[in-house]
Amino acid sequence: MLFLVASALAFESEPAPVLLQDQADLFTNVEVSTGFVPSGSPLQVEFRIEANGGAGVEMEGEGSLWWPEALTLDFTGEPGSGIYLLDASIDAVATVRIDLWGTYTDEFEIDRRSIYMDGATFFDPFVMDGAADDRVEVIDSAAGTELLNYSYQLFGVVDFEFTADMTPTFTAGFEGVRWAVNEGLILAEGAPATMEPARAPDYLVDSVFTAMWDARFDLVFTPTISACAPVFGCEELFTYDIPLELLSDSFEQDFPPYTYTFPLPLLEPGIAAGDLGTIEPGAIANLEVPLSNVGNLPVFGDATIEGDGEFTVYPTQFNANPGTTDGLVITFAPTAEGAQTATLVLTSNDPSVPTVTIPLTGNAAEPENPGTDLPGEEQVVTTEIGGCGCGTSGSPATATLGAFAAAALLLRRRRA
Q1: Is the residue at 199 inside a domain?
Q2: What are the helix and strand counts (H, E) for the chain?
Q3: In terms of domains, do 256 and 294 share one?
Q4: 77-118 pLDDT, tens digit each
């Protein structure tokens, strides 16, 4: 069962939860004046604007780290978890200038008011290039509002009536630009970053998410002036829309930095090299090899022998939970005199060292003073490294495992 669990986690770390929160000042005490527009018209308007506004964003998701081709990192947003909140205000002063064919001119303030803009929208994070939604936008458009209904007499005969409507629109936008993650960058949806693995029980990712914020305040001003005479009645003299882009802003801003932790498997063999000593041809020497997992994710892998020497390994697979030790037994069973070498190769899901090679040596020689062993008896020598006491899945069974491996080899030989 442990092996199945380890296999499921073989080349992927546990996901890291992501919560991004930030606020931006879209306008901070910004003051502008449009001047009188349109130039040369008998009816012109000027707006003096003071703006304050901000927006906030919150997004949730998770980070994923996988291998073995490369240590690869990507972030996936939780659908619908993003929220964009807008809160802005505009203080506007409107002044009108009238020039009736050079016979009558006047200039007067017609309105002074505050306009409040707010709104919210939900979206799928992280609104980067390549995503189905690569931009979030909130638009607050107030209905046309009558600013003024003003009348006055000219020369005591003609009444002039002045009305003005205004339709303000505030547009605020947000989009993801990049993730800076350690030495890598994520620039688009589905374009993960690759990084060098660290030999540690956890991989730490220092990340900064950068977004583009923008805002625009537009205004359509519609003034109308009519002349009314006792005999002739009222006649509309001028009316037209004056579209104005009063404010705009755009900038990049970093979210607060955050460090994500991804647990990793970390294999620590108990030996760097194995010397099984000198034994007689036909004898058997065993070497117990502890394999510890000092990481925070299950480690598993395969063990093989490469080379021409008469070495074998049992078992050929290993696995260990975090903080436990598994083990292997190397058996040297020479059939002829002479020194022999081979290599124990450990292939695992440890991303920092996916392949470990351990050189093995052994020597076979007839004893200088032959003993009194009975004919046909075989010698079995077992060496335990560092008090291994380690069996499969970290259980204390290596001595039994070594005896079983030796017995299996003896039985195979005698049957042969």
Answers
A1: yes
A2: 2, 24
A3: no
A4: 999 999 999 998 888 888 888 877 676 678 888 788 888 888
